[in-house]
Design the sequence.
């Protein structure tokens, strides 16, 4: 059974860098795309970006200049860094596997999510 | 950017009811549309991929249809565990976007 779990600080100061890690278990991290998403309070889900270990990456143009997604295959983890945060980056952050099969794509499974608040 | 307009934003229903949610894309996305269920405090769960294909282990009372710009998600014989929030998501790459969500509440 594939399971994902987000971890990281729940409070980040404005202008600083948000850093989160997603621990992956039950599957080889080398074989899939991995993604970060977020949901600000009262707003729709927003896709942040995805990456394939050692290969393709893609991110939301609205966040691209501030986002970095990386993977540590030895720890079966992938990470998100979001620089120069503001209150608008306050959200529940999710990690998810972005699965591809015969040209179809979907997010499954997802982690439970972690709330990150940007505040002084 | 492809905008996904989901409606209604909420609805009240009773156990045994049939409920329908719609999602409209701002441009043609073929069949590149997924549906998810989310319960409080948990990450979303995939229900339907490619507009009409049931994900593994998902009960047959969940159904999706549509292509192009107009999509429908239906739950027949609503069960107590189905009271949750539902989202559509398009994957006409490179930018992936979600609908605003529909919360199904107990009447």
Sequence:
């Amino acid at each position: 059974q594939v399971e994902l779990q987000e971890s990281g600080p729940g409070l980040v100061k404005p202008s600083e860098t948000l850093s989160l890690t997603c621990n992956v278990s039950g599957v080889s991290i080398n074989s899939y795309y991995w993604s970060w998403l977020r949901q600000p309070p009262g707003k729709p889900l927003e896709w942040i970006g995805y990456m394939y270990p050692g290969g393709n990456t893609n991110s939301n143009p609205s966040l691209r200049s501030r986002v970095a997604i990386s993977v540590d295959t030895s720890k079966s983890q992938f990470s998100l860094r979001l620089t120069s945060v503001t209150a608008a980056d306050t959200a529940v952050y999710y990690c998810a596997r972005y699965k591809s099969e015969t040209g179809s794509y979907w997010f499954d499974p997802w982690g439970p999510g972690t709330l990150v608040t940007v505040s002084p | 950017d492809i905008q996904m307009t989901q409606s209604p934003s909420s609805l009240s229903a009773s156990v045994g009811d049939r409920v329908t949610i719609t999602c409209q894309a701002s441009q043609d996305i073929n069949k590149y549309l997924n549906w998810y269920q989310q319960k409080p405090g948990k990450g979303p769960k995939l229900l339907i991929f490619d507009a009409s294909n049931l994900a593994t282990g998902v009960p047959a009372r969940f159904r999706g249809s549509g292509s192009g710009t107009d999509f429908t998600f239906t739950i027949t014989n609503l069960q107590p565990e189905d009271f949750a929030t539902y989202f559509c998501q398009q994957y006409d790459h490179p930018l992936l976007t979600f609908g605003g969500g529909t919360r199904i509440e107990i009447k």
In short: The mean pLDDT of chain B is 96. The radius of gyration of chain B is 13 Å. Chain B is about 0% helix and 50% strand.
